[in-house]
Amino acid sequence: MAGQFVRKSITAIVIKIAAAGLSFVMFVTLARAMPQHEFGAFGFAFSLATFLAVAGSLGQRNLVLKYASVYFDKGDHQSASDVATRGYRLVSMGVGALAVFLIATTFLPFLENFRAVILATACLLPILAIAEYQPHVLRAAGHVAWALMPRDIVLRAGMIGLGLLVILGFAPTLTAVTAIFTMSGILAVLIVIQALNLKSAFPSCPSPAPMSHADEPKWRHTMWGLWGNSVVNASGRNMAMIIVGFMLPAAAVGAFFAALRTAMVLELFLLAINIVAAPMLAAKLNKNDTAGVQALCRKISLMLCVPTVGVFLIFAFAGDQVLQIFGTQYVTSHPELMILATGYLISAIAGPTTQLMEMGGFERSYFRMLTITTGVTFVILPFAIHLHSGIGAALCIAGNLVALNVWAYVFIHRQLGVSSGLVPLHTRSGSAAVTT
Questions:
Q1: Measured distance CA(68)–CA(70) in Å, rounded
Q2: Per-residue DSSP letters for 90-138?
Q3: Total-model pTM
C-alpha cells in the first residue's frame, strides 16, 4: 500500500507540476492574445462557468470518490458502477437546468450587452461539469494518469496553441467568446477519449440495470452535505472574482485575475497529493484505522512541504518578474499575489482537511464551517474592495482560507485524534488518537 501510494503520488505530482506550468502559460498566452477588457471578460465567464459547474454537479464528484473507492476496496464493482452511473445522470440534469437558465437570462434587456459571453458560458457549462466529474470516477478506480492528463495537460496545451497562433500573427485577435467556445470544443473531444479508458475501469458503467441500490438512501443523505460544501467552497474565489469584476475597472480586474491564477499554483501541490490520498483515506476511515490515517496524513504533509514553500519563495523574491510575463501592466498586483499565496501556503500546511472532513462523515459540520467563514467573507468583501481595491479582495480570500483550515484542523483532531498537517496537536487523555 505504501509503495502504491508513493508511486501514484509521484505520478500525480508530476502531472500537476506540469499542469501548474501549463496553466500559468495558458493564462499568459491568453492575456497576450486578447485585449485587456476581453481577458477580463474571459476571467469573469470562466469563474462563472466553474462555479455553476460545481453547483450543478449536486455533490456527485466527492460522492463517487467516497463510495466507489470503498466499493472497489471491498471488490464490489457493480455497486461502484451504480453510484458512478447515478452521478452521471444527476450531473447532466443539474448542469442542464443551469445552462437553460443562463440562456433564458440573455433575453433580459439589461444583460443585452453580455448576451454573447453568457451564451458561450452556457455552452461551456455542461461540458466542463462532465469533464470535472469523470476524473473523479477514474480516481476512485485508481486510474490517476487517465484522470488527470486530458484536462490538466492536453486542454491547457490546446489553449496555449490557440494563443500562440494569435501572438505569432497566424490568427486574428482573440475574443473572450472565441476562447470559451474553443475550450468547450477541446473539452468535449477529451471527454469522449477519456471515456474509452473509463470502460476498462467500470465495465458495467453506465449500468444497464435500473438505478435501485440498497445504499441509495445513504447516497442521497450524503450528497446534500457534499453539495453544500462544494458550492460554498467554490463560491469563495469564483464569486469574489465576479464581485471584483463588477466593482473594479477592467484593468484592475485583469491584474487581480492574473495574481489569483498565479497564486493558485500553490494549491496544485495539495490537489495532486489529495487525488491519490482521498480514496485511501476513505478506505482507512471506513475501517476505523486511525493509525493508518495519521501515517497517511504525515506522508501527505511531508510531500507537500518542499514544493509549496519553494514556489512561495519564488513569488516572494521574484514575483514582479513572474507577473511581468503577463505584461508590464500586471506587475502592480504583486502585493495581491503575496497575500493570496500566503493563504494557499497555510492551506497546504494544514494538509487534507477537506478530504478528512468529507470522507470521515463530517460533511455537514464542514458545510457549517464553510457557510460561516465564506458568509463573513462576502459581507466584508465589498467594503474591503471599496477601501483597498484588489488588496482588500486578496485579504478576504486569504483570510477565508486561513480561518476555514484552522477551524477544520482543530475539529479533525478533536473528533478523530489526527493531526492532518505539519503542526502536531497534543492528544488529550481519552482521545481517539493513536501515536505512530
A1: 5
A2: HHHHHHHHHHHHHHHHTTSGGGGGGHHHHHHHHHHHHHHHHHHHHHHHH
A3: 0.74
Spans of all domains in the chain: 2-416
Return the exposure string of 157-177: e unless at least 16 CB atoms fall within 10 Å of the residue's CB, then b. ebbbebbeebbeeeeeebbbb
C-alpha cell at 155: 486542454
Q: How far is CA 155 from the centre of its chain?
A: 16
Instruction: Give the three-state DSSP class for 8.
Output: helix
* Cβ contacts of 258-261, under 8 Å, gap ≥ 24: 258/27, 258/31, 258/323, 258/326, 258/330, 258/333, 259/323, 259/330, 259/333, 259/334, 259/336, 259/337, 259/340, 259/390, 259/394, 260/336, 260/340, 260/397, 261/23, 261/24, 261/27
- Cβ-based neighbours of 64, under 8 Å, separated by 6 or more: 83, 84, 87, 133, 136, 137, 140
Distance of alpha carbon 385 from the chain centroid = 24
The grid cell for 286 is 471506513
The series of mean pLDDT values per 10 residues for the chain, 436 residues long, is: 55 72 88 85 88 92 84 79 88 95 89 85 95 87 77 91 93 92 94 78 53 72 81 80 81 85 84 70 81 84 84 94 86 94 91 83 85 92 93 94 94 88 65 37
Separate counts of helices (H) and strands (E) for the chain: 15, 0
Distance separating alpha carbons of residues 390 and 395, to the nearest angstrom: 9
pLDDT of res. 325 = 87
Amino acid, single-letter form, for residue 325: I
Rounded to whole angstroms, the Cα distance separating 323 from 142 reads 36
How far apart (Å, rounded) are the C-alpha atoms in residues 101 and 344? Answer: 33
> What per-residue confidence (pLDDT) applies to 202?
57
Helix (H, G, I), strand (E, B) or coil at 427: coil
